[in-house]
Amino acid sequence: MPPPAVRVVWLGRARYAELLALQESWLRRLQAEPGPDAGSSLEAGALLLCEPAGPVYTSGLRGGLTPEETAQLRALGAEVRTTGRGGLATFHGPGQLLCHPVLDLRRLGLRLRTHVAALEKCAVRLCELRGLRDARARPPPYTGVWLGERKICAIGVRCGRHITSHGLALNCSTDLTWFEHIVPCGLVGTGVTSLSKELQRHVSVDEVMPPFLEVFKETFKCTLVSEGPN
């Protein structure tokens, strides 16, 4: 049996709202499709990718931002959104690879926990390919990928009816000062970092896209089919 196919949709530099709208479209599409037990040969879903066009703070199902904090962040010129993913508050912005896999886990033979572990493995492997061999995943509440006490990749997902949404945010050349206005993911005493900071050179989202897609394909054991936004 051939490996399941996953559509790759690269939005380029895009507004966070555009990514969420496309995610909702794919969620409705997958939810309307018959399950794999019905003998369908439909794709497993889509891998939605973008570089955020502007600063956005998001909070998850566990909250993370008070009304006062929200007002302060908006005064800085940032967008603030409440999302349905797991976790607390984090930041998305230019210089970050934002990856939202909208997948039917049944077609990939995965459970939610193994899906999260696979996302972590993708980010760890990408760091290793860039020479950062100390990158590692840590158990909850430290979900994500870390270099010591510095988080380089945040992960927060949602899953309903076996279909995932949201995903990971990998700091490539992100302006890390934006993180100073929150407690990222509610973890006091930890920091954030980026590929550019660790490697002491500019690492763009465009640079990491090809190796990230290769790592995703290998980790999720799927084929990738590219297309533009729809």
UniProtKB/TrEMBL annotation:
Keyword annotations of the record: Acyltransferase, Mitochondrion, Transferase
One GO cellular component term: mitochondrion
Ranges for domain BPL/LPL catalytic: 41-224
Residues that hold substrate according to the record: 85-92, 154-156, 167-169
Enzymatic class: transferase
Active-site residues, as the UniProt record annotates them: 185 (acyl-thioester intermediate)
Keyword Transferase included in the entry's annotation: yes
The protein's annotated pathway: Protein modification; protein lipoylation via endogenous pathway; protein N(6)-(lipoyl)lysine from octanoyl-[acyl-carrier-protein]: step 1/2
Substrates-to-products reaction catalysed: octanoyl-[ACP] + L-lysyl-[protein] = N(6)-octanoyl-L-lysyl-[protein] + holo-[ACP] + H(+)
Site positions per UniProt: Lowers pKa of active site Cys: 151
Gene Ontology molecular function, alphabetical: lipoyl(octanoyl) transferase activity
Chief subcellular location: mitochondrion
The organism's place on the tree of life at top rank: Eukaryota
EC number(s) on file: 2.3.1.181
Compartments it resides in: Mitochondrion
GO biological process, one term: protein lipoylation
Free-text function comment from the UniProt entry: Catalyzes the transfer of endogenously produced octanoic acid from octanoyl-acyl-carrier-protein onto the lipoyl domains of lipoate-dependent enzymes. Lipoyl-ACP can also act as a substrate although octanoyl-ACP is likely to be the physiological substrate.
Family: Belongs to the LipB family.
Protein name as it appears in the record: Octanoyl-[acyl-carrier-protein]:protein N-octanoyltransferase LIPT2, mitochondrial
Organism taxonomic ancestry: Eukaryota, Metazoa, Chordata, Craniata, Vertebrata
